[in-house]
């Protein structure tokens, strides 16, 4: 059971790799090779920083998006996007200009603009994951968030509250994306990753 | 609920060893920052901060090894500060496993370094750390552990660094640091009320009520403390309980 963790220069790559191993992943391939992704049983896309530079970095890996499309969308391999890796599922991101995402889940990633000045941006710290739709992997609990932009669109599975609802998880079919950082969410995060490793959607 | 107030223990690390750290009796090697980090992870700390106070330039690489080893076993957010001069310094720490990097003196000498880090790696990982002392007119930025005056207004400096892209402001009162007489709440609140980014209160914690004051009166989003945790006077759970009793939202970590 190979899990391909896509290496496209994302800052949280090693933290996600460490957490996946701690969650019990025994066959982890940290890879920039589309061939490995095309054969993987599961795929994880990490990501921190700006939407546009992450999208450009992912497109910069020759053949990677095609391999992801093939393996996830046509062959239904389980996929997890984390933080900006989740945001990239959207059609567009509006961070430092307008950038095209993967377009796997209809939506736009926009800046958080709480009207209450006590709600700070970045949204930084532990907050609730509150499921709004049934999903085998996403359970209520407290997870660590660290972001200034959030997904607004279809297929929302869970929200959190930061002066109003903010998307915490999105998903459809074998695709799941989480805004929070499971790799930084201690027990809650590791338990979530264990469920992903066991997921047979 | 809403985003929780964060309780952040801070460890001073020099040449890869904890200088000021916790007296957890069960630790095999209390001087090992990784062991201490594990203990705080198990105790439910909301984040952890390493402050690298290594004096000699040659030993600076050791913090990267400490961060790497910590990130392999701790699944909590980690901020690392001390000696970060350039965006490349920040990059090395982030790749080693730090989630946030704090810039202090380098941002006094050249505030633009904050913009460079934020542009390359995102505001979310760029913490601007400001050490301030009271003056007759307000507060002034000090460097070199509070010994060297700069003539720079601390509030203006902090706000400017947030404008340049810092995603968090770590504000330390050098008047209070080590005194255990509580945060400089007026300093913390003055910054917190004038910025849109989270503020971490630092310097002077002597008891749990100081943590509560930092959030409730200082309007900070997070409270940093060293000695009350290190000397075993209070646990992270005690801090969470004190904050909760004051009506501050805190998380209920699942502990080992």
UniProtKB/TrEMBL annotation, chain A:
GO terms for biological process: L-histidine biosynthetic process. Keywords: Amino-acid biosynthesis, Cytoplasm, Glutamine amidotransferase, Glycosyltransferase, Histidine biosynthesis, Hydrolase, Lyase, Transferase. This is Imidazole glycerol phosphate synthase subunit HisH. SUPFAM superfamilies: Class I glutamine amidotransferase-like. The active site is at 83 (nucleophile), 181, 183. GO terms for molecular function: glutaminase activity; imidazoleglycerol-phosphate synthase activity; lyase activity. It comes from the Bacteria. IGPS catalyzes the conversion of PRFAR and glutamine to IGP, AICAR and glutamate. The HisH subunit catalyzes the hydrolysis of glutamine to glutamate and ammonia as part of the synthesis of IGP and AICAR. The resulting ammonia molecule is channeled to the active site of HisF. PANTHER family: IMIDAZOLE GLYCEROL PHOSPHATE SYNTHASE SUBUNIT HISH (PTHR42701:SF1). The lineage of its organism: Bacteria, Pseudomonadati, Pseudomonadota, Alphaproteobacteria, Sphingomonadales. The keyword Nucleotide-binding does not apply.
From TrEMBL, chain B:
Pathway: Amino-acid biosynthesis; L-histidine biosynthesis; L-histidine from 5-phospho-alpha-D-ribose 1-diphosphate: step 5/9. Belongs to the HisA/HisF family. The active site is at residues 12, 131. PANTHER family: IMIDAZOLE GLYCEROL PHOSPHATE SYNTHASE HISHF, IMIDAZOLE GLYCEROL PHOSPHATE SYNTHASE SUBUNIT HISF/H IGP SYNTHASE SUBUNIT HISF/H. IGPS catalyzes the conversion of PRFAR and glutamine to IGP, AICAR and glutamate. The HisF subunit catalyzes the cyclization activity that produces IGP and AICAR from PRFAR using the ammonia provided by the HisH subunit. Keywords: Amino-acid biosynthesis, Cytoplasm, Histidine biosynthesis, Lyase. One of its GO terms (molecular function) is lyase activity. The lineage of its organism: Bacteria, Pseudomonadati, Pseudomonadota, Alphaproteobacteria, Sphingomonadales. It is found in: Cytoplasm. It catalyses: 5-[(5-phospho-1-deoxy-D-ribulos-1-ylimino)methylamino]-1-(5-phospho-beta-D-ribosyl)imidazole-4-carboxamide + L-glutamine = D-erythro-1-(imidazol-4-yl)glycerol 3-phosphate + 5-amino-1-(5-phospho-beta-D-ribosyl)imidazole-4-carboxamide + L-glutamate + H(+). SUPFAM superfamilies: Ribulose-phoshate binding barrel. GO terms for cellular component: cytoplasm. Heterodimer of HisH and HisF. This is Imidazole glycerol phosphate synthase subunit HisF. The keyword Cytoplasm applies. Its EC number is 4.3.2.10. It holds the Pfam family His_biosynth. GO terms for biological process: L-histidine biosynthetic process.
């Amino acid at each position: 059971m190979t899990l391909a963790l896509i290496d496209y220069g994302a800052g949280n790559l090693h933290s996600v790799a460490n957490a996946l191993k701690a969650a019990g992943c025994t066959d982890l391939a940290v890879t920039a090779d589309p061939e490995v992704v095309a054969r993987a049983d599961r795929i994880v896309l990490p990501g921190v920083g700006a939407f546009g530079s992450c999208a450009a970095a992912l497109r910069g890996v020759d053949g990677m998006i095609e391999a992801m499309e093939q393996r996830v969308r046509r062959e239904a391999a389980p996929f997890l996007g984390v933080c900006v890796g989740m945001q990239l599922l959207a059609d567009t991101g509006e961070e430092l200009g307008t950038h095209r995402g993967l377009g796997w889940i209809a939506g736009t990633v926009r800046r958080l603009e709480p009207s209450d000045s006590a709600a700070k941006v970045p949204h930084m710290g532990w907050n609730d994951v509150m499921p709004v739709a049934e999903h085998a992997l996403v359970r209520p609990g407290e997870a660590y968030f660290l972001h200034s932009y959030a997904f607004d669109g279809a297929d929302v599975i869970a929200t959190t509250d930061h002066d109003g609802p903010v998307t915490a998880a999105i998903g459809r079919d074998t695709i799941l994306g989480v805004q929070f950082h499971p790799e930084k969410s201690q027990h809650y995060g590791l338990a979530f990753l264990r469920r992903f490793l066991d997921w047979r959607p | 609920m809403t985003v929780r107030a964060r309780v952040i223990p801070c460890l001073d690390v020099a040449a890869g060893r904890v200088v000021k750290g916790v007296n957890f009796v069960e630790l095999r090697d209390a001087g090992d920052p990784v062991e201490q980090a594990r203990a705080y992870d198990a105790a439910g700390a909301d984040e952890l901060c390493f402050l690298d106070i290594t004096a000699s330039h040659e030993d600076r690489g050791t913090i990267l090894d400490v961060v790497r080893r910590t990130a392999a076993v701790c699944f909590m957010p980690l901020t690392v500060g001390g000696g970060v001069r350039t965006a490349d310094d920040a990059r090395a720490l982030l790749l080693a496993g730090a989630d946030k990097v704090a810039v202090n003196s380098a941002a006094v000498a050249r505030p633009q370094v904050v913009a460079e880090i934020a542009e390359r790696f995102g505001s979310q990982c760029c913490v601007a750390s400001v050490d301030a002392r009271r003056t007759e007119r307000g507060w002034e930025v000090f460097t070199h552990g509070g010994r060297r005056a700069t003539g720079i207004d601390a509030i203006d400096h902090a706000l400017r660094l947030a404008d340049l892209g810092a995603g968090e402001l770590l504000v330390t009162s050098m008047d209070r640091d080590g005194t255990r007489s509580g945060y400089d709440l007026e300093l913390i609140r003055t910054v917190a009320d004038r910025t849109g980014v989270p503020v971490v209160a630092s310097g002077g914690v002597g008891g749990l009520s100081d943590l509560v004051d930092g959030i409730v009166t200082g309007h900070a989003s997070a409270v940093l403390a060293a000695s009350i945790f290190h000397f075993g006077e209070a646990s992270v759970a005690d801090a969470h309980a004190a904050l909760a009793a004051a009506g501050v939202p805190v998380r209920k970590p699942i502990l080992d």
